[in-house]
């Protein structure tokens, strides 16, 4: 969740707010299985570094496959996620969004939290922002 007050803070301009909103929507798409939204707002050659893999992963299809698997097993998804301490840097048609992602899971009725430091790189083509790369590292 991104609190509305956070998006309205004076230190985020309109473009930065748009990118934070897109970041939240992409995370929401992962957790709700909205494959069409994720594919539409990612480049086909999306690259990433994930903590679960020892090498770079290339191509959006890998992520869409994971989303399909998660849709088949909804218990894998967190009950809630939050974007904490976001920073948005915009350099023309390239932007970097960094934040900590707090995920809340239900473990037999008891909340369990996981946190990851995340970086997302966006490029703008014909007025549309698309995610081109991301990096995920566990905080501990």
Descriptive account of the structure:
The chain is of the alpha+beta class and 140 residues long. It has one domain: Nuclear Transport Factor 2, Chain: A (Roll). Helix content is 31%, strand content 45%. It is built from 4 helices and 6 strands; from the N terminus they run H-H-H-E-E-H-E-E-E-E. The protein has helices spanning 4-8, 14-32, 35-40, 60-72, and strands spanning 42-49, 57-58, 80-91, 94-107, 110-125, 128-138. It has a 6-stranded mixed beta sheet with strand order 2-1-6-5-4-3. The chain is globular, with a radius of gyration of 15 Å. The two termini are 22 Å apart.
Q: Descriptors for this entry?
A:
140 residues, alpha+beta, 6 strands
């Amino acid at each position: 969740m991104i609190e509305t007050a956070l998006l309205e803070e004076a230190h985020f301009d309109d473009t930065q707010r748009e990118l934070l909103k897109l970041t939240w929507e992409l995370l929401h798409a992962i957790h709700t299985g909205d494959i069409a939204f994720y594919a539409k707002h990612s480049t086909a050659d999306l690259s990433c570094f994930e903590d679960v893999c020892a090498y770079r992963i290339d191509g959006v299809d890998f992520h869409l496959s994971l989303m399909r698997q998660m849709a088949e097993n909804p218990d894998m998804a967190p009950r809630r996620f939050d974007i904490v301490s976001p920073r948005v840097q915009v350099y023309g048609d390239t932007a970097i969004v960094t934040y900590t992602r707090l995920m809340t899971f239900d473990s037999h009725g008891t909340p369990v939290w996981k946190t990851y430091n995340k970086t997302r790189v966006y490029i703008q083509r014909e007025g549309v922002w698309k995610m081109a790369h991301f990096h995920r590292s566990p905080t501990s």
